[in-house]
Every structure is written in structure tokens, then in C-alpha cells.
Request: fold
Amino acid sequence: MANKIFLFILTLSNCLTLCAHEYEGRFGIGGHYELENVVRDFLIFNDTTAFSKIATAKDTRDFYCFYESEYFMYSLVMALDYDNSFAFSELNRLLHEFYDKNHLVKADFFYDLSIYFKSKGDIFFSDEIINIENQVTSETIMSYSQHFTTPDEYYKDSLLSITNDGDSIAYSHLFERLRHSCYFDSKYNHDKFFRNRMLFFSIYHIDKNHSSKGYLRLYRLIMDFYNTRGKELSENSSRLALYFLKKAARLGNVTAKNELLRLVEHESLLKIR
Reply:
């Protein structure tokens, strides 16, 4: 009898230990979601609930840095605002690399983006929404972004020279600079400078699931990137941002609809003035 009780307690103890390890592996220390696992759940199993967790999940094993996403955003500015041909080609390269590296199936949104980049912005999305959603236009976005005047203090002059001056020399060295920062800068600096981790996951979420959340996230990433650099959007970048916002609204996203209403109010105030 004593032996049976001992075996039961031992089995129970082993079970609890395994469960604890599983909890830590999935959720990380302290109950936080572990980034490695939520990325896997989203990309491999198409767990759409995992998509939202990626933004705040903890990378306790230091597997990720997202310098490619950061470089993508700088490339977007160089391409759309300064018509930099190399930046357009880099955008297309980064897009393909993300899909190929993660063995993802390419669908309509991927090809639309790729064509847009290959054409250097000349071939826009065929389903662009015009003259609906309360008459919000790219000019509205440009006007709204005029208050993006003060860059965040921790962005260095050489980085701002890329976004705000179109410095092609600084941009040509940016990819290696960001990659170097991933390996040698502290985790604290990663959290400050690499703030666009949701970029490629949002693109894939749209491509795979026609996700309104993915479209809204892309809109916000563009707006936040310009805002933190103290830079107004150009006609090209505002057109792209507005396309993503209107797509999210058309797919029923309430937050996107409210954002459009807020932009309508901004437009109305301008007309009164």
C-alpha cells in the first residue's frame, strides 16, 4: 500500500513539473506569452488569436530583433517620398524573403504589394476605394500629419536624415547598421528602436485571412513611423496609408470606421477655418 501511495505521489509530481514547463514554454516567465510560440501558432497553425499577442509577447530567449521590419519602414519612406529606386527593390526583396524564410504560401495581397513595389508605385491596388467613406482623401491624411513636427528624442540625426532629408548615402548603410544593432546593442535599445515587429505578420494576416486587423495595423504603423520621426506624410505615403485604413473599415473594423470619422471632423474644421 505504501509503495502504491509513493508511486502515485511521484507520478503526480512529475505531471505537475511537466505542466509547469509547458506553461513556461508557452507563456514565458510570469505568465507572459512567449513570442516564439505565438509566432509559430500564427504562421504555422493560422491561429488568429495569436496574431494580437505577437505585439506584446516577451522574447525571453532573444530569438528576435525585427531589424528587417525597421529597415522596411525606412525603405518605404525612401521609396514613396523620395522616389528611390533601390528602396523600391529592397521593399520587394524583404517581402519575398519573409515569405520564403517562413515557407508561407503567397496569395493575392502578396502579389499586389509585390507589383506595387516592382512598378515603383505606378501600379496601385486595383480595388482602391474612391469617393466613399465620408470623402476622406489622401490630402486629409497629409493635412492631419502636419502636426507631426517633433521627432522622438532617441532617434539619431543620421536616422532622421534618411526620413526627413532623403539621405541616400545614410540609407545605403542602414541595413547593416540595423543588423549590427541587433547583435550588439542592449535589449533596452531594441525596444526603443525596433518598434515595427507587427509589420510582416500584418501583411501575412491580410494575405491569408483578409484581416481587417492587419489592414488597420499597417495604417497605424505608417502613421506612427512618420509621427515619431516628426515628418509629414507625402501624397504617395498618405495614399497608401488611407488605402489600408479604408480597407479595414470596408471589412467592418469599428476602430477603422471611427478613425475615418475622426479624420472627417479634422477635414470639417479645416473648411471652417
Q: What stands out?
A: Residues 2-27 form the longest helix (26 residues).
